[in-house]
Design a protein that fits this description.
Elements lengths: L3 E4 L2 E4 L4 H9 L2 E6 L12 H11 L2 E4 L9 H12 L4 E5 L4 H10 L6 H10 L14
Parallel strand pairs: 2-5, 3-4, 3-5
Antiparallel strand pairs: 1-2
Helix pairs in contact: 3-4
Length: 137
């Protein structure tokens, strides 16, 4: 799974392995955000396992479970709050990286237009057209 930087402080991917997490830490990672609900697939780590791993490696961990295509206002607000409280590098993962990219874009909608965020995300391989209606309000 490749790591995709959406800006200088935030990256996304599908589920990581321990080596990828170690590489992110070597590059200054301070927070890992998991947006996968537990038991989404049979062989994924649980949030508890990710928390224990992050604790052992000295990285902050946040679990904000989101079902694909369903972004509640509370989840977006929590995601934005978590990002605003971080001074270092943050990485967010889900199954493919799409939900992570969508949540990031939704958390940025007060500062940037849909078109600006779509340009950023589409240049990195993530399409925001499925969440365009979230930018209408």
């Amino acid at each position: 799974m490749s790591i995709v930087n959406l800006n200088d402080h935030f990256s996304v991917s599908g589920e990581l392995n321990k080596q990828q997490l170690s590489e992110l830490i070597e590059n200054g990672l301070t927070m890992l955000i998991n947006v996968r609900p537990d038991n989404e697939t049979d062989q994924q780590k649980t949030s508890r396992e990710w928390k224990l791993l992050c604790d052992s490696l000295g990285v902050s961990y946040q679990h904000i479970p989101v079902n694909s295509g369903c972004y509640a206002k509370q989840q977006i607000a929590l995601f934005k709050q978590v990002l605003e409280q971080q001074n270092g590098l943050v990485h967010c993962f889900c199954r493919s990286g799409t939900r992570a990219a969508h949540l990031w874009a939704l958390s940025q909608k007060e500062q940037s237009s849909f078109q600006q965020l779509q340009r950023i995300c589409s240049s990195k391989g993530y399409d925001l057209s499925a969440i365009k209606d979230y930018f209408a309000d």
